[in-house]
Specification:
Number of strands: 2
Number of domains: 1
Oligomer: single chain
Shape: flat
Mean pLDDT: 79
Radius of gyration: 13 Å
Distance between the termini: 24 Å
Strand content: 15-25%
Strand order of the largest sheet: 1-2
Largest sheet: 2 strands, antiparallel
Number of helices: 2
Length: about 60
């Protein structure tokens, strides 16, 4: 099972909507983690769709 950590786009939407914290499940540690939306730049990741779009491959 994959991680439930939010991607950079989800963090941007949450920041826009005024969300301060996101709780997500970490399957490796079997516990919830908290991401502070305004301090999450170091942990952002790209999705497969982002990689395709930035490479110019479209959908």
């Amino acid at each position: 099972m994959g991680s439930a950590k939010p991607c950079w786009r989800c963090l941007e939407w949450c920041r826009w909507a005024g969300v301060k914290r996101i709780f997500h499940w970490n399957a490796e540690e079997n516990r919830f983690e908290v991401v502070k939306v305004n301090n999450a730049e170091s942990g952002q990741y790209e999705t497969h769709a982002d990689i395709r779009l930035f490479a110019g491959l479209g959908w």
